[in-house]
Predict the structure.
Amino acid sequence: MDAMKRFVIDYGKLTVASVLLSISTWLFKYPNNFSFGGITGLSVVLSKVIDVSASTINLVINAVLLVIGVVVLGKNFAGKTFYVTVVSTGGISLLDRIYPITEPLSGEPVIELLFAVGITAVASAILFNMDASSGGTDIIAMILKKYTTMEIGAAIFAVDLLIAASAFVIFDFTTGLFSLTGLFAKTLIMDGAIENLNLCKYFTIITTNPKPICDYIHNELHRSATIYKAEGAYSHTEKNIVLVVLKRSQAVRLRRYIKTVEPTAFMMITNSSEIIGKGFRGFN
């Protein structure tokens, strides 16, 4: 039952992220010709050159890449990335038919760029945090990673930069600047979103009475902790150091509990977004 619940939750998150990508692309990227990388950015550029709708080009290119991905990557590919690509690409095509847009929603391209970048970055962060991707150029990256020693991140960024820069030639200088700004902003926002999604609190607690603290961690927060003996450098009295990593909501509860039960305890609380192990993230 736990496995089924986890499956439903994971694919629910994937669906939400995919829908956000579709909405961001259709409402903000396509009408404004924002071309900040990826297949959606490439489809915006190509739609101007070959006079075919961006949604159709996006659908065709992603369909071709999906087939190539299945053939080349096999079972390693048939999973989350495949699902996200189908849902996000299908969502854009569906929106094209039920809610066609031929011009921007407002006369404020800066505001629309903020929405386009923000929604896309958050959705991408959710996918990355779940070891998934939105397909497109990521499929190419997966293939390159399998068969070459190329630095994938740099290669994909170079491709995205080229797509964004092409907006200067295909559209105009203003659209080109918006596209480049969107590419850089998306990278920054996505990095920040990923870090916040994974943010945990690392406690170092120095106390003479660790039992009530550890009991609370085990019984109320359903986490484990590590204890080791230490000695005060000045008083030379025996101390216990309790180490524990918690989610932010749990950290608030533990800090409040310690303040009430062990007010003389010394706490050091630091932020960490890279916690690997049971109960957190596995090795990738």
The longest strand covers residues 238-247. The chain has ten helices and four strands. The CA atoms of residues 164 and 180 lie 6 Å apart. The chain has a mean pLDDT of 83.
